[in-house]
Amino acid sequence: MKLLCGSHNHDLAETLVGHPYAGRLTNDEKSMLVDMIKTSTKPRSILLTLKKRNEKNLTTIKVYNAMNTYRRIERRLRTKMQHLIMLFERDMYLHWCRFNEGKNVVQDLFWTHPDSIKLPNSFDIVLMMDSTYKTNMYKLPLLYIIGVMSTGQTFSVTFILVEAERENNFVWALERLKGLFTRVDLYPKVIVSDKDLALMNTIGVVFLEAYNILYQFHVDKNVKAKCKMIVHPREAWD
Fold this sequence. Notes:
Layout: H1 27-38, H2 43-53, H3 62-75, H4 80-90, E1 94-100, E2 105-112, H5 114-122, E3 126-132, E4 142-148, E5 154-161, H6 167-178, E6 190-193, H7 197-206, E7 211-214, H8 216-227, H9 234-237
């Protein structure tokens, strides 16, 4: 290597933020970080707390590194899925898994809190079902089912990660849901959903006596989307 110029081509940094060495966490900060992770504190709140306690703290990404390290140590040799199942069993969650035998991976996952088993058996008239998307790193649809109390308040019944929104997956999920009810006469009388045909067909098969109605929100949204192009003039639409 031949040295062409022995001087710096930029000014000295005014702050050490971003430098790995300066951003290291002390042992006390790591201990406090672990305590906050256990209470499900968000990373930005952890970082803000560390900086409030020590104004000279220059850490940024090290918080995420420390969190990942702690979780990796906590899991030990378990995979993420094995660790999740262990937590379900530790906290006495009711859960079922369906495996893809060919790939040896979890295909569908159903879980519910013990208290969520008591509530639908007390308030069984109305259930609402909807899927959310892009809420997890595996890009799996999350089918969320809630119930309605006599006071109008809602409560979580169960969460189900499904491989795809197909009738086969929904049949498995709703059969598990059906198993939460202690008596046949406690099955839901009304089930509210969006116009997912696979889910609607499955509801008709699993809960034969339930009325399946659509969310008013989705109906309103569809009307606005479809009718705007045929309403003229623009003033009439407004």
